[in-house]
Structure formats: C-alpha cells, structure tokens
Amino acid sequence: HRIKVLDMSWNVMYDYAGIRIREIIGLAPDWLYQEYIEARRHPKVIHYAGPEKPWLFPEGDFAEIFWSYAKKTPYYETMLYRMACYAANKEREKQCGGRKKSVIYRTIRCLFVYGPKHTLREIRRELGL
After folding, report:
1. How far is Cα 115 from Cα 20, in angstroms, rounded to an integer?
2. What angle do CA 16, 76, 14 make, to 5 degrees?
3. Is the Cβ–Cβ distance between 88 and 122 less than 8 Å?
4. Can you tell me the distance from the alpha carbon of 105 to that of 10, in angstroms, rounded to the nearest whole number?
C-alpha cells in the first residue's frame, strides 16, 4: 500500500476572527507554527472553518481568493445577492422599521457598483463599528 502524506498547504484553515493563528497555532511547537505559516503563503485548499464564511463576510482572511474564483462561476451574482440580503437583514435587526427599504436598496446598489469589500466598509461605517 502506498500512502502519500500531504503537507499543510492542502488544508489551510483561515484565521477566524484573528484568533486562530494568535491563540491556537501560536501555541504549537515552533517547527509546526512555521510549517503552517509557510502553507498560508501558497495554499492549495483553504478550509473556511468557523462562522465567518467569505460569502457572508467578504473582509475575512482569504476571502479575496474565494471571491476571485466566485467571479468565474455562473453563481457570482446569486452569491452577491445573498450576501446583500444577509447584510440588509443584519442591518434591519438593528434599525427601526422606517428605513428598511432604503438600507436594502443602498446595500444592493453599493454591492453592484463598488463590490463587496467597499460595501462592507460602508455598512460598518454606517453602523459605527
């Protein structure tokens, strides 16, 4: 039987909320930490393990890689729409009922005109985050 051991670049986990590297991987022996950091430089498979998925949080770790591939699929516009709906629903939960339409409209318009990263920055700015 032949067994091929794959290096860490075949299962690079994204840095969830900025804590995975600092509080988990950082506790590993130095050789293992260095291997992980090297794998991050040239990931072959990115594992979005955690609640902040790039299709909902486009500012997350390795999200730009996800979106670069998403743009090449026939589902790109659907993903943008769902992300806009998610952001609008989160906003609506925090706002009074009177601004629902304008927030949804502005979010979707911003997504299609400026892209997901800019839109998320604008949502955060409006929420004072």
Report:
1. 27
2. 15
3. no
4. 40
| Residue 82 structure tokens | 């769902």
C-alpha span between 24 and 5 (Å, rounded): 23
* Residue 83 contacts residue 55 (beta carbons within 8 Å): yes
**What does the block give as tokens for 8?**
């860490």
Token pair belonging to 113: 């005109």
- What is the chain's pLDDT, residue by residue, as a tens digit (129 residues)? 799 999 999 999 999 888 888 888 889 999 999 999 999 999 999 999 888 899 988 989 999 999 999 999 999 999 999 898 888 877 766 654 444 556 777 777 777 777 788 888 878 887 777
